[in-house]
Amino acid sequence: MTLPRYQQLAQTLRRQIDAHVWLPGEKLPSLRESCKQSGLSLMTVLQAYQLLESQGTLVSRPQSGYYVAPSRPLRLEHGSLHTAEQIDVNDAIFDILKAGQDSDIVPFGSAFPDPTLFPQPKLARSLASAVRRMSPHSAIANLPPGNEDLRRSIAQRYALQGVEVTPDEIVITSGAMESLGLSLQVLTQPGDWVAIESPAFYGVLQGIERRKLKAVTIPMDMEQGIDLAALEQAMATYPIKACWLMSAFQNPQGCTMNPDKKRQLVDILIRNQVALIEDDVYAELYFNGDRPNPLKMSSYRQEILHCSSFSKCLAPGFRVGWVAAGNYASRIQRLQLMSTLSASVPVQLALADFLHQGSYDAHLRRLRRQLELRQNAMRSAVLNSFPPGTRLSKPTGGYFIWVELPGKMDATKIYQQALAKRISVAPGTMFAVDNRFSHCLRLNTSFEWNTRAENAVKTLSELVYKEYNRHR
Amino acid sequence: MTLPRYQQLAQTLRRQIDAHVWLPGEKLPSLRESCKQSGLSLMTVLQAYQLLESQGTLVSRPQSGYYVAPSRPLRLEHGSLHTAEQIDVNDAIFDILKAGQDSDIVPFGSAFPDPTLFPQPKLARSLASAVRRMSPHSAIANLPPGNEDLRRSIAQRYALQGVEVTPDEIVITSGAMESLGLSLQVLTQPGDWVAIESPAFYGVLQGIERRKLKAVTIPMDMEQGIDLAALEQAMATYPIKACWLMSAFQNPQGCTMNPDKKRQLVDILIRNQVALIEDDVYAELYFNGDRPNPLKMSSYRQEILHCSSFSKCLAPGFRVGWVAAGNYASRIQRLQLMSTLSASVPVQLALADFLHQGSYDAHLRRLRRQLELRQNAMRSAVLNSFPPGTRLSKPTGGYFIWVELPGKMDATKIYQQALAKRISVAPGTMFAVDNRFSHCLRLNTSFEWNTRAENAVKTLSELVYKEYNRHR
């Protein structure tokens, strides 16, 4: 079967661009010239150019013509900048999420914390008590922005940390997933460019795909964190509409930005007048010292949509999150009215009640201690049993460790073999739009460190070693 | 300030098209001819043509050229077909929703049923009991498609009505708003055409706006219901990707399709292979006889996404809805995992528990009786006090009446004047993208028929008469 003529022409042009016949930023022959040269009709040439434009290979400039788009990937001094014009989320993500539902499988690949870590009886009492006192009008009274008591309690927690957030800018949502999605919708239109981390939480990739956005992926390092030079370069190169990242216990690598990096990042945002979506769902889970300060603490706070939830630290199944949305609060409310109307009322009331009880901080202290102990135990086990050359992150909070296997090892294979042995892990491919983390794994360290877990790490290390020896 | 040349050219072409220089469906001069004729550059002409294409005035055909789009509005034998390339939801909608939160205002404009109509103590007991028995793993176990017991109970209710729906095709959502939104996302890409009712539930207009879709609005009549000839014509004229409507107690007009109309509608869908989003949230609220059969009952059921919830008939604040999504169930699940992850777990468990108690149908019988009595009372009061020429819908279920004021009366003015007197009504402009229902009101009849309500109708009628007399 032969391709239509415009597709043939597009392919030819694409090959020429790849071969640097036309350099990034260079003007292509005009449509008229191209017609003359190719002998094709104007419509055909136009379609070819438009196809390449829709693929991001060309850009059109009003009153001027078609130009080769800035090159991708860009080689930068401090790393490399990659872009994705179209993100396709791997089907595997859904299979992995589903595997987590099977209690027969050791859930190292799970995104959820060990559910037994939470004060369920107390939450149940709060729920029962809240719903007994619930006014029939509560459904209407708790329309967006959501329950007032709960918003005030959340604002108080911000205040105690020194972050200026008013109850009015908080919108209660169905988990942080909804607040992140609403934030992205408020800041972007389909086709816009967004700067994201690489590797990133797969929810970011899904959000970008769903909204039909284009992404510039900013390199992360499990020790150094985000590459600010690359971010700066991205802002200079693409019309970035929003930046979406995690400043504390980044998922999946676990890195936390130091104060200096935070200042520089905010400077870049201010200079470029780009709004920030700050996903901060793990911040309460620090192991020592204080809660890491969010970027929201900066003077740029009105342009920072700080998203968090109770799902990682108190009540996973309740699906209650929020966004402190600064200048965007009323637009977020409207979007929510259009999409889910409001978060479920009884669970909002239950959390407001629970926060008033005053035992939340005691629970968090216990939770942090347990997560730290479990992470240390599992980290040591992995460190002691995986092949030499394995790199392991050492997060100071949260419940993930990031494992870089040595050499060219294929973590997706490990994932499949482990699953056959009833152990789930999260392969690195879940966290990027390409294969650059295909030698990495994310492990959930929140579960009880017992013989079952020990044996599972042992089995994993055997699988890894088998693959390692094949590659030597 | 002068317009850029391409915009000037676009305006000129637009004027020519409006003046029938170029007829709908006719080919426009080629780009080359147009360049020659206008003396403008190819890029400028191209931009003008593309601008008109983006506005829906022109359509381009591969390998051929630019054509004038089919005319809008089309004049049809049985009504007229209107389209909206871009929908802007009036800010007033949000103000009206907010006004409903003020208990000091008589809530005739509210979309919510009287909250005192629901079995709150029983629901509270179900919630307390469910959450006591809640396993720590429930958050994960109840990921999409949602709680299995609840899905089975819903499937049983379908089965009792003779509708073939399996628990597997049901996805539990955060209210019907989420299920409708997910359905729209699964069926369409931004820029696609969708057929909707006119007037329609404003959530439809918001959903279309949010997704950047184009709409063909199909005329409705409060007695005759949807204009099938117009729908058929719409399908023949535009590449409709989905149809979105209500077959029972349509919001806002209250009409229910008769079985013959349903058959014809399904035939049209099948002939055109267009999927249907069926919003059926009021179906349980019938006054006499049986629950109206949904379109989902037809042989085309796999292509019908039947959306409903417990928000209108049992538990308004819980925000639990569902979609019986046929062929689209797994795609809906994936989209939900990306957007809100899952519906709140405790409220799902509570509803599953409540449905097992077996008192749901007794509650519904009481609810229907009360809604009927209240609707009759309010309808009579409006009928007896509003000016001659007023048309009133007579729905056989639900809790809205639709009021068409005589002549050229401005219902938005009535809305404003009524609000000043602490009475809310829903002006017709909320339910369309243009002003064609600006002489209409929707009234919520679910509230207790007492002196306050009587006086409110009296005040309304005085406002209406004042306006009526001004127009005579």
Describe this structure in words.
Chains A, B: Residues 3-71 form the HTH gntR-type domain. 2 copies of one chain form a homodimer. Chain A contains 16 helices and 18 strands. Chain A has 472 residues and is an alpha/beta fold. In chain A, the strands form 4 sheets. In chain A, strands 3, 4, 6, 7, 8, 9, 10, 11, 12 and 13 form a 10-stranded mixed β-sheet that branches. In chain A, strands 14-15-18-17 form a 4-stranded antiparallel β-sheet, covered by helices on one side. Chain A has a two-stranded antiparallel sheet with strand order 1-2. In chain A, strand 10, helix 11 (259-272) and strand 11 form a beta-alpha-beta unit. In chain A, helix 2 crosses helix 3 (42-54) and helix 14 packs parallel to helix 16. At the A-B interface, helix 3, helix 4, helix 5, helix 6 and helix 8 of A face helix 3, helix 4, helix 5, helix 6 and helix 8 of B.
SSE blueprint and pairings:
Two copies of one chain form a homodimer.
Chain A: H1 5-18, H2 31-38, H3 42-54, E1 58-61, E2 65-68, E3 74-76, E4 79-84, H4 91-99, E5 106-107, H5 120-132, H6 138-141, H7 148-161, E6 170-173, H8 175-187, E7 193-198, H9 202-210, E8 214-221, E9 225-226, H10 228-237, E10 240-245, H11 259-272, E11 275-279, E12 304-309, E13 321-324, H12 329-339, H13 345-357, H14 360-385, E14 391-392, E15 400-404, H15 411-420, E16 423-424, E17 426-427, E18 440-444, H16 451-470
